[in-house]
Amino acid sequence: xxxxxxxxxxxxxxxxxxxxxxxxxxxxxxxxxxxxxxxxxxxxxxxxxxxxxxxxxxxxxxxxxxxxxxxxxxxxxxxxxxxxxxxxxxxxxxxxxxxxxxxxxxxxxxxxxxxxxxxxxxxxxxxxxxxxxxxxxxxxxxxxxxxxxxxxxxxxxxxxxxxxxxxxxxxxxxxxxxxxxxxxxxxxxxxxxxxxxxxxxxxxxxxxxxxxxxxxxxxxxxxxxxxxxxxxxxxxxxxxxxxxxxxxxxxxxxxxxxxxxxxxxxxxxxxxxxxxxxxxxxxxxxxxxxxxxxxxxxxxxxxxxxxxxxxxxxxxxxxxxxxxxxxxxxxxxxxxxxxxxxxxxxxxxxx
Length: 351
Ligand code: PEP
Ligand code: MN
What we know:
binds phosphoenolpyruvate; single chain; Alpha-Beta Plaits; 11 helices; TIM Barrel
């Protein structure tokens, strides 16, 4: 259930409602929107449900909304105006600006990540993506550079004014990663690793939660709910293609999931057409479609030498192709009331 407080509700009235919710054995999650405070009520206690409903008459309460979806805090009712999440260095996601995260599938060396960071920053990306801990389908494939990869990524990002997004695979990696990353990515294979999701609920760092390859939209939103129920509301969702009967592409990019999720949830949605297609020549079309469909961000794999990439070379764009994609997205964005950062002249920060 969601309790909408009146626009002019006082702090005492809000505190009173929160206290009563807790006395009834439920958790109260307070969200302060621009207009009003909204309180999400979650928990299983049936005993005091009647008392909870009586809050309808409490001073400062405007209305009580029953949420029929199994996800509550991730539901649009919790923040009808949509969530704008601060990523760092003044960059936010979920507002007017569409944010691009670009970089290699995996960090391979200082030279590799340094060159890519410089090129994607110039094209208008705000985040550098790259895996240090890689969830590979085969145990014999390159598994990532681990902690060393994180350091290389942070340095390359800082040199180019970028933020860092990288995948966390296990709760034990969270503390190792926090000093180096701005956004923690949960990969498709871990979307239902509830132990990991709960651990991410205990921190405040933004989490980019990718849709599992066979997950429904409801399952994705329930996974977001796991993180939010712990108190971390900084969740960004990612459509990265799903498995269907068609095997022509690596995955089937579910573009319709973008407007569906935007309707069901207040959380920002990012599109990953690289994993969504698996093929370099199809990434641009799906990125353009995602922008037109209302995506809040793009996650794009870029490599300067894709043929020699240690992972996902076939779907990695050359830096020039990424710049071209950004130029196209920049033209599409205004048609749907959005904008994308301009290309910039490169400025190397002195070290
Ligand atoms: C990735 O972003 O490199 C990745 C492994 O993606 P996914 O979890 O969507 O397969
Ligand atoms: Mn990849």
